[in-house]
Amino acid sequence: MSSIKLLGISGSLRKASTNRGLLRAAQSVLPSGVSLDIAELQDVPFYNADIVGIPESVQRIAHQAQLADGFIFACTEYNYSMAPALKNILDWLSRQPDTPLNDKPAALMGAGGGMGTSRAQYHLRQSCVFSMFIH
Ligand SMILES: Cc1cc2nc3c(=O)[nH]c(=O)nc-3n(C[C@H](O)[C@H](O)[C@H](O)COP(=O)(O)O)c2cc1C
Question: Which CATH superfamily is 4-134 part of?
Fold first, then answer.
């Protein structure tokens, strides 16, 4: 049985995403006692405070995030920043009443592009710093 639960979130929605591939690769080398789920972002709508209630796709990820002890972000880079799907789920999660991101560690990684997504990761760090510890 796993004692440490991680949630992986990739910024890319495409099936052949290299960043999602990174998360699958991480799943294949986990030490015993650690599990890694991968969040499904395909159906998550753009955050809009006018949406009444919490969409099912967001509820599912918020539940996974609540159960997680920490996060792994595989940060796709679009135009020197994180891809909108990743920013969007961070925005949704940051507005949940049970604050599932708060005070949990996060690791950042990325694949593709010219600099291994380092510029996008810089923005992601700034976005995360409000609600998480980054190790
Ligand atoms: C709209 C768009 C903007 C991009 N901007 C950058 C960029 O600024 N820097 C970079 O290194 N790669 C950039 N890329 C290349 C992506 O990082 C590359 O296609 C990567 O494989 C996408 O991640 P994924 O494989 O997880 O889908 C861009 C790709 C797209 C589609």
Answer: Flavodoxin domain (3.40.50.360)
Cβ of 12 closer than 6 Å to ligand 1, yes or no, is yes
User: What pLDDT digit, counting tens, does each position of 52-99 carry?
Assistant: 999 999 999 999 999 999 999 999 999 999 999 999 999 999 999 888
Ligand 1 nearest-atom number relative to CA 76:
23
Copy the structure tokens of residue 134: 């980054």
- Give 135's pLDDT tier (boundaries 50, 70, 90): very low
**Domain boundaries of the chain, sorted by first residue:** 4-134
Cβ of residue 76 lying under 6 Å from some atom of ligand 1: yes
Asked whether the predicted pLDDT for residue 132 surpasses 80, the reply is no
Q: Are 59 and 53 in contact (CB under 8 A)?
A: no
Is pTM beyond 0.85? Reply is: yes
